[in-house]
Design a protein that fits this description.
The chain has about 190 residues and is α+β, with helices and mostly antiparallel strands. Helices cover about 40% and strands about 35% of the residues.
């Protein structure tokens, strides 16, 4: 009997070890992006004042706790936002704009201005983000960053420089939220 209870406990543990749960959202341990299998590097909750806004997850070719490696490393990458509440398109774009400005020099932003404008147009195109929506930002080397809403690709923003600027929103020196950065880096 004791062995049976132990076995059931072990099976239960193995079953739950295959996916993380953050803020009530099940986060897959892996993601397939452009034919590359990525691993969950970390995930955390973005809060604003007292409200839980989204679960942010970072997927990379291999785990790292170093922000510079995550930002500049080779290979496909994914940032996934699982919405925990509704956010207007204007508020979303404003948050992205603030995050880009806080973590990139004027020269770096000027170099990717066309891509930033394209990204903001794409983000506005799906309208307000609703609770339960999933937004993915997939970087495909040689192609760019594919922005998707609810699994539907809405556009590709070219260039590695844009993707590095975008990742700094969460992983830069002045991230949108320090605790989210720590969580996305596996801390």
């Amino acid at each position: 009997m004791r062995k049976l209870v132990l076995l059931i406990g072990l099976v239960g543990f193995i079953g739950t070890a295959s996916a993380a749960e953050v803020g009530g959202v099940k986060i897959a341990d892996t993601a397939s992006v452009g034919g590359s299998e990525l691993v969950l590097n970390g995930a955390g909750i973005r809060t604003r004042v007292i409200f839980k806004v989204y679960v942010g997850s970072l997927y990379l070719p291999k785990k790292t706790s170093d922000a510079a490696t995550a930002i500049g490393g080779e290979g496909a990458k994914r940032v996934q936002l699982n919405m925990l509440r509704g956010v207007s398109a204007n508020d979303f774009v404003a948050a992205f704009t603030d995050g880009l400005k806080a973590n990139n020099s004027e020269a770096d932003l000027a170099a990717v201005k066309t891509q930033v404008d394209q990204f903001m147009t794409i983000m506005r195109s799906f309208g307000d983000a609703k609770e339960g929506n999933v937004i993915t930002l997939d970087y495909l080397p040689g192609e760019g960053t594919v922005a998707s809403h609810e699994g539907k690709p809405l556009g590709t923003i070219p260039g590695a420089a844009f993707n590095r600027a975008l990742l700094k929103i969460w992983l830069g020196d002045k991230p949108i939220q320090a605790s989210l950065k720590k969580s996305m880096l596996g801390g």
